[in-house]
Design brief:
about 400 residues, NADP, alpha/beta, KPR_N, eight-stranded mixed beta sheet, 2-dehydropantoate 2-reductase activity, NADP binding, N-(1-d-carboxylethyl)-l-norvaline Dehydrogenase, domain 2, Rossmann fold, four-stranded mixed beta sheet
Length: about 400
């Protein structure tokens, strides 16, 4: 099995490190870098090694291959350590604004028998990939959507990571055109409710299965993710993963923009009473949007001229997506990460693009589909885009 990863940020390095520790002796892990300079940097400066420190105890993984997206187009020895071939399993943790160009370059190496794991900030990347690259469902790779509540930061160098908070690595399998029920184990009524879980046999059972070649890498990817015990992996039904993604979208659409604008750590937001007001406004807008989305999918949307204020926006919402729950999520997240610098603030400080379009921008796009107005969410987006255009260290 040939695993490939793209994205060597703190979480990407953490995932790659534990992936390498979980695979079989004949499996390989290849790290794809965006250009020859980055590939040489990882190989020559860091010796194809990732170091992770957790609770003061270091662990090292090595033996990685490293290449650029189209290694045969390069004369770099480092970039060609692993031959260009079909990718069995690809784990994507890179910034969303780099993902589409990278996936377009890799698309010729991905087939319907490949598996892609998306573990990124915000939402919208899966939809963009299937609309703009993998149009044909019959030729589309298998997709896994994942979320992580782990916290880590880069210590001194690219491949030197400190794992500061142990959370959960949750993932679910996106349905495809075969109508195969990957989530069958989660609603098997012959099993007690609290014992229901995902089953590898529901993906593919044996070489005699007519879908064996199509789903072999999907099964092996799920099996490998479940072996990454230090990351507390959890296979969840796709509706539960979709709920997790929306919860994360709402809280990050509050915390990341505010910390980027105020140039402060997460916990410092609690010093201002206005933070609670802004949180309540944005999470209410997010909850209304999620409710409209669910109603539309259930064909329950009210198409009459009934006034928006009179509609029961949250009747069909899971409890976790209701306004008060989302507001509590934000406050808990800020407390749990009070000493952390948000990724968006780090991007602003580094003069890099932010992922605001996959956070607030995605919420705005969702809301517009249901003719909802989300002014607080939109205002934060506009302010971050303005902030991005003005260097933080600009002399006055």
């Amino acid at each position: 099995m040939r695993f490939h990863t793209i994205g060597l940020g703190p979480i990407g390095s953490l995932i790659t490190h534990h992936l390498k520790s979980s695979i079989g002796l004949t499996d390989t892990v290849t790290i794809i870098r965006r250009n020859n300079r980055q590939a040489r940097e990882f190989g020559e400066l860091f010796g194809n090694t990732i170091r992770v420190e957790h609770h003061g105890v270091p662990s090292v993984s090595t033996g990685y291959f490293c290449q650029i997206p189209n290694p045969t187009h390069s004369h770099s020895r480092v970039a060609q350590e692993s031959p260009e071939d079909v990718i069995d399993s690809l784990i994507v943790t890179m910034k969303t604004y780099h993902t589409f160009p990278m996936m377009r370059m890799l698309s010729s190496r991905l087939t319907s028998a490949s598996t892609i794991v998306l573990l990124q900030t915000g939402m919208g990347m899966y939809e963009e990939l299937v609309q703009r690259i993998f149009h044909d469902p019959r030729e589309r790779p298998n997709f896994i959507l994942a979320t992580s509540t782990h916290k880590a930061y880069t210590n001194n160098d690219l491949a030197d990571i400190v794992h500061t908070h142990t959370g959960e690595l949750a993932f679910g399998i996106v349905p495809n055109e075969t109508n195969k029920d990957f989530d069958a184990g989660f609603h098997d009524e012959s099993v007690p409710l609290f014992d229901r879980k995902g089953r590898l046999s529901d993906i593919v059972s044996s070489p005699s299965d007519p879908y064996y070649n199509r789903f072999k890498t999907l099964r092996e990817t799920v099996e490998t993710l479940l072996k990454m015990k230090p990351l507390n992996p959890s296979w969840k039904s796709i509706p539960e993963i979709q709920t997790n993604l929306r919860r994360n979208l709402a809280l990050r659409s509050v915390v990341d923009p505010l910390t980027a604008l105020l140039n402060c750590r997460n916990g410092q937001l609690l010093h201002s009473p206005s933070f609670r007001t802004i949180t309540r406004r944005v999470t209410n807008e997010a909850s209304r949007t999620f409710a409209a989305e669910i109603d539309a999918h259930l064909n329950m949307a009210n198409s009459s001229d009934e006034d928006d204020e009179d509609r029961d926006w949250h009747a069909s919402l899971p409890q976790k997506l209701k306004p008060l729950s989302l507001e509590e999520d934000v406050l808990k997240y800020v407390l749990d990460t009070k000493g952390h610098i948000s990724p968006m603030l780090a991007d602003i400080r580094g003069g890099k693009p932010t992922e605001i379009l996959n956070l607030n921008g995605h919420l705005i796009k969702m809301a517009s589909q249901y003719r909802l107005y989300v002014p607080w969410t939109a205002q934060l987006l506009e302010l971050v885009q303005t902030r991005s255009a003005i260097p933080l260290d600009q002399m006055l």
